[in-house]
């Protein structure tokens, strides 16, 4: 009996040692991509690590459509310094661990020059170490978490860039809109406790809103994948807020809005770009969404001619489908990268990242674009209002 | 009035747990198997209901009926293909098979239609909120509670007043003796799976209408909660599953009501642990000997 036990311990030790060795091996292949950059012949390979399936597939698929359109346009106009762009798409299944795998695949097997995506912050954070180790430039179209470009130690991550504005900025915009445009003095926050994105927005909203003289009367949280919010909404209703800020992703927010309106909560509701999906309207229902606002990177009914051209090209390619914010950001990410590649001259990773960091006043669909020292863009934010289930341009707020 | 509102919230949630828990408890009662694929039958029911409403254009009751019928057939298939060959195997083998079947259904569904969520169309049932003494009640929750209670009453009738029900009770009491008395044990077990799965299918449609969002992995958490509810009431005991489901729903709502909404799922499993330590046979485990 004793012998068997010893043998068992020995076996399990062997097993775990084997597993560790396996992990080490995986890491090695991950960093082996360094130096192996560049393109073969006349094409520049760009990786797209996107949420093509899973819970936030709507963002990844939308960004992918924007990327495809931009690449098609650039190649039609002669490519970049004579070279055509080639996109390699990998599905990260809306899962951070899969996002890491996708990044390993793109950097070590496909040897791409740059990666666009993923669309959500958690998934981008999961690939950032691999990208940095292999000196591959990453541009996330819509990952708004601050830590994507600036590490916990406060140092800027050299190879990480983004096309969208950052979390605190969205929370700040929402708070300013609530206290200055809607003139409310007390608000409630109902945030997704499992997402860095929602927590970042909530913190910035609270800071700016209380700074404007407002009062937070209720602060509640939920966890992604919840379906029943009635109990917590009953508590919020009892606090009687004039405004409810709900940072989170569309899957839960849609249900929250529906259940809130069913329970007789009539206050204006507002959230960030995580709301931007047609699924939100399906889940919440058109009526429930009246008196709800969201922050967006762009509005398709914005009268700006640059936006009008983009909408026209997009509708022509995708049989009349009107582009959403993620489409626009995916599209802009390619142009942001293309501009950097042009100025870098060749495909040396260091030159590319320096060129991207120096981007200034680049006219893009989601606004005139300047990169600050923390690799965040400085540009305007758009406030949209839901009317009968469709988003209408309501206001533009400058930084 | 907030507390009354919270209890009403809890009862709506609990009646869905109860419907799923009934299937768990019936199957356990008859072949002593925790059918972990039960939560996924619930998911299949939600999707059948969704497609019959959106694609075939059925209204609520026909969709509910269709989901129940398809889930009943599905449940019998699962039993015949996966569990019947293991009838005389060890219980752990059957349990592991159940987990395998569960994963197979979940990822099979993702393979067939993808992982993206689907929204039940609005307006299948009239949704109207009204206030009584400061408590907001939605017409949908009343109808859902009504359908759940009606299904439970029909189930009680089947188990206690019909020949099949009598056979089910006999097999659960002693399968060998029942076989000697001329009862077709295999058919009776299939009937139990059919009824349990039909209830799960109904719960799926009700869940879809009430909570709108459905997706291929939606069965996991409600399935586990329903398992807790079944154990809470005393596994193998039908009224126990109903009460267990309702109690669990109300407990979860009250946990959120005092401001610990993030602890809600944790509390459900703490309840399971406490029951297993202090009253392993469940709330109803002692006096009622009739098991199905």
Helix and strand topology:
The complex is a heterodimer of chains A (399) and B (292).
Chain A lengths: L1 H30 L11 E8 L6 H20 L7 E8 L4 H15 L3 E3 L4 H13 L3 E4 L19 E3 L4 H15 L4 E7 L3 H16 L3 E8 L7 H10 L4 E2 L4 H13 L6 E3 L6 H7 L7 E5 L8 H13 L7 H20 L4 H9 L4 E3 L2 E5 L5 E2 L2 E7 L2 E8 L2
Parallel strand pairs in A: 1-2, 1-3, 3-4, 4-5, 6-7, 6-8, 8-9, 9-10
Antiparallel strand pairs in A: 10-14, 11-12, 12-13, 14-15
Helix pairs in contact in A: 2-11, 3-4, 5-6, 8-9, 11-12
Chain B lengths: L1 H30 L6 H17 L5 H24 L7 H23 L4 E2 L9 E4 L2 E4 H23 L1 H11 L1 H6 L4 H27 L1 E2 L5 H14 L4 H20 L6 H15 L14
Antiparallel strand pairs in B: 1-4, 2-3
Keywords:
heterodimer; A: 399 residues; alpha/beta; Rossmann fold; 2 domains; seven-stranded mixed beta sheet; 12 helices; B: 292 residues; mainly alpha; two-stranded antiparallel ribbon; 11 helices; 4 strands; globular
Question: Can you describe this structure?
Answer:
The complex is a heterodimer of chains A (399) and B (292). Chain A is α/β, with parallel strands linked by helices and 399 residues long. Chain A folds into two domains: 43-165 and 304-380, Rossmann fold, CATH 3.40.50; 168-296, Response regulator (Rossmann fold, 3-Layer(aba) Sandwich). Chain A is built from twelve helices and 15 strands. Chain A has helices at 2-31, 57-76, 96-110, 121-133, 167-181, 196-211, 230-239, 250-262, 278-284, 305-317, 325-344, 349-357; strands spanning 43-50, 84-91, 114-116, 137-140, 160-162, 186-192, 215-222, 244-245, 269-271, 292-296, 362-364, 367-371, 377-378, 381-387, 390-397. Chain A has a seven-stranded mixed beta sheet, with helices on both faces. In chain A, helix 9 (278-284) links the parallel strand 9 and strand 10. In chain A, helix 5 (167-181) packs parallel to helix 6, helix 8 runs parallel beside helix 9 and helix 11 packs across helix 12 (349-357). Chain A starts with a helix and ends with a strand. The relative contact order of chain A is 0.12. Chain B has 292 residues and is mainly alpha-helical. Chain B has one domain (2-116, 128-278): ABC transporter involved in vitamin B12 uptake, BtuC (Orthogonal Bundle). Chain B has helices at residues 2-31, 38-54, 60-83, 91-113, 139-161, 163-173, 175-180, 185-211, 220-233, 238-257, 264-278, and strands at residues 118-119, 129-132, 135-138, 213-214. In chain B, the strands form two sheets. Chain B has a two-stranded antiparallel ribbon with strand order 1-4. A two-stranded antiparallel ribbon of chain B has the order 2-3. In chain B, helix 1 packs antiparallel against helix 8 (185-211), helix 1 crosses helix 9 (220-233) and helix 1 runs antiparallel to helix 10. Classes of the chains: A alpha/beta (399), B mainly alpha (292).
């Amino acid at each position: 009996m004793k012998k068997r036990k010893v043998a068992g311990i020995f076996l399990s030790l062997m097993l775990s040692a084997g597993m560790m060795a396996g992990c080490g091996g995986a890491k090695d292949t991950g960093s082996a991509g360094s130096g192996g950059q560049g393109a073969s012949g006349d094409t520049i390979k760009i990786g797209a690590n996107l949420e093509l399936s899973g819970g936030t597939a709507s963002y990844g698929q939308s960004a992918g459509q924007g990327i495809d359109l931009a690449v098609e346009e650039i190649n039609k106009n002669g490519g970049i310094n004579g070279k055509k762009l080639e996109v390699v798409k990998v599905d990260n299944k809306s899962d951070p661990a899969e996002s890491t795998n996708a990044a390993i695949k793109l950097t070590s097997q496909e040897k791409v020059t740059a990666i666009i995506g993923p669309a959500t912050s958690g998934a981008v954070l999961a690939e950032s170490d691999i990208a940095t180790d292999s000196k591959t430039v990453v541009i996330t179209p819509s990952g708004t978490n601050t830590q994507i470009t600036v590490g916990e130690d406060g140092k800027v991550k050299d190879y990480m860039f983004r096309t969208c504005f950052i979390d605190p900025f969205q929370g700040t915009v929402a708070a300013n809109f609530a206290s200055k445009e809607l003139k409310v003095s007390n608000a409630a926050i109902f945030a997704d406790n499992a997402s860095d994105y929602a927590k970042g927005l909530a913190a910035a909203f609270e800071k700016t809103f209380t700074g404007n003289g407002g009062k937070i009367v209720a602060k509640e949280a939920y966890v992604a994948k919840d379906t029943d919010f009635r109990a917590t909404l009953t508590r919020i209703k009892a606090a009687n807020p004039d405004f409810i800020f709900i940072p989170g992703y569309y899957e839960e927010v849609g249900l929250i809005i529906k259940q809130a309106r069913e329970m007789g909560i009539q206050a204006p509701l507002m959230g960030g770009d995580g709301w931007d999906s047609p699924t939100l309207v399906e889940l919440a229902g058109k009526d429930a969404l009246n008196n709800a606002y969201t922050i967006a990177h762009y509005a398709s009914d914005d009268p700006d001619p640059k936006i009008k051209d983009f909408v026209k090209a997009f509708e022509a390619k995708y049989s009349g489908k009107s582009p959403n914010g993620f489409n626009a950001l995916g599209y802009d990410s390619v142009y942001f990268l293309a501009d950097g590649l042009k100025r870098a001259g060749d495909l040396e990773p260091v030159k590319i990242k320096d060129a991207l960091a120096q981007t200034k006043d680049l006219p893009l669909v989601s606004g005139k674009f300047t990169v600050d020292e923390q690799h965040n863009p400085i540009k305007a934010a758009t406030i949209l209002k839901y009317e009968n289930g469709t988003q209408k341009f309501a206001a533009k707020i400058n930084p | 009035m907030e507390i009354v509102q919270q209890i009403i919230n809890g009862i709506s949630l609990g009646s869905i747990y109860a419907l799923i828990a009934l299937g768990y408890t019936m199957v356990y009662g008859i072949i002593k198997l925790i059918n972990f694929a039960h939560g996924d039958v619930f998911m299949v029911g939600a999707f059948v209901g969704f497609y019959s409403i959106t694609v075939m254009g059925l209204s609520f009751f026909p969709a509910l009926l269709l989901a129940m019928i398809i889930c009943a057939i599905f449940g019998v298939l699962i039993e015949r293909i996966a569990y019947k060959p293991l009838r005389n195997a060890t219980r752990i083998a059957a349990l592991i098979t159940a987990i395998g079947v569960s994963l197979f259904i979940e990822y099979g569904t993702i393979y067939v239609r993808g992982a993206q969520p689907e929204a039940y169309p609005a307006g299948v049932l009239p949704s109207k909120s009204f206030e009584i003494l400061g408590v907001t009640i939605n017409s949908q929750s009343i109808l859902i509670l009504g359908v759940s209670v009606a299904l439970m009453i029909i189930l009680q009738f089947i188990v206690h007043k019909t020949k099949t029900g009598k056979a089910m009770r006999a097999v659960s009491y002693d399968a060998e003796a029942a076989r000697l008395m001329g009862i077709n044990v295999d058919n009776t077990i299939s009937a139990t799976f059919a009824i349990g799965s039909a209830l799960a299918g109904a719960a799926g449609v009700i869940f879809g209408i009430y909570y709108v969002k459905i997706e291929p992995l939606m069965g996991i958490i409600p399935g586990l909660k329903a398992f807790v509810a079944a154990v809470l009431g005393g596994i193998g005991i039908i009224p126990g599953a109903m009460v267990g489901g309702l109690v669990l729903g109300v407990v979860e709502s009250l946990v959120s009501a005092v401001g610990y909404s993030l602890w809600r799922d944790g509390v459900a499993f703490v309840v399971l642990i406490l029951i297993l330590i202090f009253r392993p046979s469940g709330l109803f485990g002692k006096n009622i000997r009739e098991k199905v």
